[in-house]
């Protein structure tokens, strides 16, 4: 779970270092994939009672927020690059 969470931030950072456009958005998509991986691991942890219900719900909420934000960033990046062409 730690690796997936770190991967989200790392892919966002790497995307910021790329040229605006498809290349940058690709790294944001990697970050979204990592958030889905983290969500899957959280669901499994909840099912095997490794985390309590409150922690599960709170963490799931934050993962959904982050995923939405990164998806918005990806869409913005693609639309901004389309305007510059």
Write up this protein:
Helix 1 packs antiparallel against helix 2 (22-47) and helix 2 packs antiparallel against helix 3 (53-84). 20% of the residues are buried. It is built from 3 helices and no strands. The N and C termini lie far apart (39 Å). 86% of the residues lie in helices and 0% in strands.
Report the average pLDDT across residues: 93
Q: What portion of residues is helical?
A: over 70%
CATH class wording: Mainly Alpha
Shape: elongated
Q: How large is the share of residues in beta strands? A: under 5%
Give structural attributes.
elongated; mainly alpha; 86% helix; 0% strand; single chain; de novo design (two linked rop proteins); 85 residues
Please describe the topology of this protein.
Elements (H helix, E strand, L loop, with lengths): L1 H15 L5 H26 L5 H32 L1
Helix pairs in contact: 1-2, 2-3
Task: Write a brief caption for the model.
With 85 residues, the protein is an all-alpha fold.
């Amino acid at each position: 779970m730690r690796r997936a969470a770190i991967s989200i931030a790392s892919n966002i950072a790497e995307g910021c270092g790329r040229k605006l456009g498809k290349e940058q958005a690709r790294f944001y998509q990697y970050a979204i994939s990592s958030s889905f991986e983290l969500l899957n691991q959280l669901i499994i942890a909840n099912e095997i009672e490794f985390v309590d219900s409150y922690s599960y719900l709170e963490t799931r909420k934050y993962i959904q927020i982050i995923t939405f934000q990164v998806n918005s960033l990806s869409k913005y990046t693609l639309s901004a690059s389309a305007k510059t062409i």
